[in-house]
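pls design
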């Protein structure tokens, strides 16, 4: 069964999947993470031919905006307490 058949929600655009082995991830993690970031595609990681993990790119600024919002909320609590 292909990754598209196993995880159809990750192929909404009909594009090719990124699939890497654990060895690839171990030896080229920086390159792989850069490719995930620049292409915006989900990557599947395999071990001995079996899918074991999915790495999903985050939308630009998604994490930063949530962290800043939480920090502002905490500062606001401290000021009002």
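designed seq:
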């Amino acid at each position: 069964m292909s990754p598209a058949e196993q995880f159809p929600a990750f192929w909404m655009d009909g594009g090719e999947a990124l699939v890497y082995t654990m060895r690839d991830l171990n030896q080229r993690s920086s390159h792989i993470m850069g490719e995930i970031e620049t292409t915006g595609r989900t990557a599947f990681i395999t071990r001995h031919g079996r899918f074991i993990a999915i790495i999903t790119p985050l939308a630009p600024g998604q994490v930063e905006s949530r962290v800043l919002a939480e920090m502002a909320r905490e500062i606001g609590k401290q000021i009002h307490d």
